[in-house]
Specification:
Layout (H helix, E strand, L loop, with lengths): L7 E7 L9 E7 L2 E7 L18 H5 L9 E3 L13 E3 L2 H19 L4 E4 L13 H9 L3 E3 L5 H11 L15 E5 L3 H4 L3 H10 L3 E5 L5 H4 L3 E3 L6 H15 L4 H7 E2 L1 H9 L3 H8 L3 H13 L3 E5 L9 H15 L8 E3 L11 H4 L8 E3 L3 H6 L8 E5 L3 H4 L3 H8 L5 E6 L11 E4 L8 E4 L6 E4 L12 H11 L11 H9 L8 H7 L26 E2 L3 H6 L18 E4 L20 E4 L1 H6 L7 E5 L4 E8 L7 E3 L35 E7 L2
Parallel strand pairs: 6-15, 7-14, 8-9, 8-12, 9-10, 11-20, 12-13, 15-16, 16-17, 21-25, 22-24
Antiparallel strand pairs: 1-2, 2-3, 4-5, 4-17, 18-19, 21-26, 22-25, 23-24, 23-26
The structure holds ligand MGD (2 copies) and molybdenum atom.
Molybdenum atom binds next to loops.
Length: about 675
């Protein structure tokens, strides 16, 4: 037998997964298969040189045994309970789409469009894969509107209210800072390209402060680590604001010129002495004072706010207070000074023209309450659920309710995904989706300030189809397509790019260049190159809209929900193995809950013991990892785990309440309060 050397081709791509970094990728392809994914240096200096361990094995996701290769339908009579992955039989695309179209049409005719609920979030952050033809389909059907609040809703509300989502300090510019504050963010897992930048800053003498209940890898190297209790960032930030005003560290001239609401903010912060903040946060008052002084005296000082601080009852006000810090202290106007949250707002592109259909006035369903919505009888009841770009059973709060909803045998569920997820196992119809290596994409980073277009590097695996193809076809089958509307990837991309303000021809720029920067440039200095995008160009420290929508008013602290029965706070942060729940099929090891030695000892729990983590919502059976990496009173279990990763199939989300954040209707994952006990 002769072996033929296969030609290897190296093709460019870019990662659209939900991560700030937006890596350029170099993909090696052999015989239509991806064999290696590595870094590509052009276009985004932030990510040059290396990529994360997850995407470095993306070929195992693309060509792995869990990949959905063809459409399938639930066998007649096969119940949903238990989510048996063998309950499906293969059908053709024509059969699958005919069935989906018929059932959507039937739900609409018999119960009204609102009986249909599309459910999607950030599986791909690409512009083409969300809010384009899917929006056209569901808006024209009059379907219930899904509020995408599972992440960034409180942060987004705060950032919009205070600054109109002003672009932040570019991540490579952190190198110029003399103080970096990592607030509720763990770049070592969730955006790894910031780590070498921080190393360089430290080599130049920069100080690092980390505010996190866990001793993250960067907290271990920090000059100061404030291991706050989850949900207590608001008092912490307010105590620093109070200090700045009282000690002369507030920049009165800057505030007078660029901000409104400083007086009200000052009043609301007055109560928060270091001693009071220390009690709320569970850290020493002296440590808080050290931080406040360091912040007051350092410039350039940059705060990297993450998403860990938003996922609780005080999340919106906490983010607002943290973002107010650089305004109060006058930290803007120098390279490496200011704040960074999401830079997604640097791109003022919308998908409206691609959808070609205005948002409908149909009822809104907050995705954090989807379990509740699926189980409630409210009029009309949800009869058809269409899940795409999301794995809600693994990622939404109140997992018990979500599971019970998905187990409804009278609910018609479509799961459109790349692999057999926990959610997909409960579907009536499975539709196989392409990955970004198999379809065209257009994406901006939300950390890196770059926009890129990518072409597929391999043909679709099996019979997988792209979101654009599937939603376009469903529009046609349901008689909802209209001639002349954008339909192809190219037409949709052009429609989106044409929404660029200021008459920029982004399509032409992207044709000529690998990656293009936003209007403010790829490394703007705040208050030199980028200014608040609020209506009057000012910072609104107490925006009226936020004041009205927070339950107690902005910057008012709500106490910790722990109780005697459930004294431990459970946090469920990003892990370096998964992107949310994506790639979970590649993780073979079982999960462990991290618990502090003192908390473990008090419960007779030893290293590696089988434990039960529980509260009134549910319980998770897994191993214990006894470690000082979590503070006392806090336990940690990664987000995004699949049912296969625990002994009883439930994950952290089974313990997370479906209460909502003070702003934006966001998820309160880190308000989960639990007890842990040894099993067996
Ligand atoms: N590898 C990997 N990268 C990812 C993701 C992933 O799943 N895996 N997810 C992506 C997405 S969607 C997002 S939103 C980002 C999220 O990434 P990050 O912004 O880093 O957010 P989290 O991982 O949720 O939490 C960050 C840190 O906040 C801490 N924390 C928890 N509660 C609190 C609190 O109340 N106050 C403070 N100060 N800290 C708290 C946690 O211990 C954790 O170390 O990462 C993105 N990048
Ligand atoms: N306990 C706990 N849970 C959390 C969090 C937490 O802090 N704690 N954080 C949350 C956060 S930050 C977020 S952002 C959410 C995210 O939650 P999800 O949006 O559910 O994100 P993923 O788990 O990555 O699931 C995305 C799915 O979309 C699929 N997909 C990817 N690309 C495409 C495509 O082009 N077409 C189609 N049809 N499908 C595609 C992927 O295969 C994957 O199964 O999870 C949240 N869940
Ligand atoms: Mo997220």
């Amino acid at each position: 037998m002769t072996t033929r050397a296969l030609a290897t081709r190296t093709l460019p791509s870019a990662c659209p997964l939900d991560c700030p970094d937006h890596c350029g990728l170099s993909v090696e392809v052999e015989d239509g298969r991806v064999v290696r994914v590595g870094a590509r240096d052009e276009g985004n200096p932030l990510t040059a040189g290396f990529i994360c361990g997850k995407v470095a094995r993306f070929q195992d996701h693309v060509h792995g045994p869990d990949r959905l290769l063809h459409p399938a339908v639930r066998r007649p009579g096969a119940r949903k309970r238990g989510g048996d992955p063998a309950a499906f039989e293969r059908v053709s695309w024509d059969q699958a789409l005919a069935l989906v179209a018929a059932r959507l049409d039937e739900a609409r005719t018999r119960h009204g469009g609102e009986s249909i609920l599309p459910l999607s979030y950030g599986g791909s952050n690409g512009y083409l894969t969300q809010d384009t033809l899917d929006a056209r389909l569901f808006r024209r059907l009059g379907a219930s509107r899904c509020l995408r609040t599972v992440c960034a809703a409180p942060s987004g509300a705060a950032a919009t209210g205070l600054y109109g989502k002003m672009p932040g300090v570019a991540l490579p510019d952190f190198e110029h800072a003399s103080l970096v504050v990592l607030w509720g963010v763990n770049p070592s897992a969730s955006g790894i390209h910031l780590v070498p930048v921080l190393d360089r800053a430290r080599e130049r003498g920069a100080k690092l402060v980390v505010i996190d209940p866990r001793r993250t890898p960067l907290a271990r190297r920090a000059h100061l680590h404030l291991a706050v209790r989850p949900g207590s960032d608001l008092p912490l930030a307010l105590s620093v604001i109070r200090f700045l005003f009282e000690s002369g560290g507030a920049d009165a001239r800057f505030l007078a010129r660029h901000a409104t609401g400083a007086g009200t903010l000052r009043k609301r912060a007055e109560f928060w002495t270091f001693a009071r903040a220390a009690r709320a946060c569970g850290v020493a008052a002296g440590e808080i004072e050290r931080f406040a002084q360091l912040y007051a005296e350092s410039s350039p000082a940059v705060v990297r706010a993450g998403w860990g601080l938003e996922r609780n009852r005080n999340g919106g006000s906490a983010v607002a207070a943290v973002l107010a810090l650089p305004a109060v202290a006058g930290k803007f106007g120098v390279r490496g000074g200011g704040y960074t949250l999401s830079n997604g707002g640097a791109w003022r592109l919308t998908t409206d023209r691609a959808a070609a259909e205005p948002e409908s006035g149909a009822r809104a369903v907050n995705m954090n309450r989807v379990g509740e919505a699926l189980l409630s009888a409210r009029d009309p009841r949800i009869e058809a659920l269409f899940v795409y770009n999301m794995n809600p059973l693994a990622t939404l709060p109140a997992q018990g309710k979500v599971r019970a909803g998905l187990e409804r045998d009278d609910l018609f569920t479509v799961a459109f995904d790349q692999v057999m997820t926990d959610t997909a196992r409960h579907a009536d119809v499975l539709l196989p989706a392409t990955t970004f290596l198999e379809h065209a994409e257009l994406r901006r980073g939300y950390g890196a300030m770059t926009l890129r277009r990518t072409a597929p590097v391999i043909p679709p695996v099996g019979e997988a189809r792209s979101n654009v193809a599937v939603f376009g076809e469903l529009c046609r089958r349901l008689g909802l397509a209209r001639p002349g509307e954008p339909e192809t990837d190219e037409e949709i991309a052009r429609a989106i790019l044409s929404t660029a303000p200021g008459g920029r021809d982004l399509a032409a720029e992207l044709a000529a260049s690998d990656a293009v920067p936003p209007d403010c440039g790829a490394s703007p200095v705040q208050f030199a190159d980028s200014f608040p995008l609020t209506a009057d160009g000012k910072i609104h420290l107490v925006p009226e809209a936020l004041e009205r929508s927070s339950p107690l008013g902005l910057y008012r602290f709500q106490d910790d929900p722990s109780c005697e029965k459930f004294p431990l706070a459970l946090v469920s942060p990003a892990s370096s193995r998964l992107v949310n729940s994506s790639l979970g099929e590649l993780v073979k090891e079982k999960a462990a809950v991290e618990i502090h030695p003192a908390d473990a000892a008090a419960r007779g729990i030893g290293q590696g013991d089988s434990v039960r983590v529980f509260n009134d919502l549910g319980e998770v059976h897994c191993r214990a990892r006894v470690t000082e990496l979590v503070r006392e009173g806090v336990v940690a279990l990664s987000k995004g785990l699949w049912s296969r990763h625990t002994d009883n199939g439930a994950t952290a989300n089974a313990l997370c309440p479906d209460t909502l954040t003070d702003l934006g209707g966001g998820a309160c994952f880190n308000d989960a309060r639990v007890e842990v006990a040894r099993r067996g």
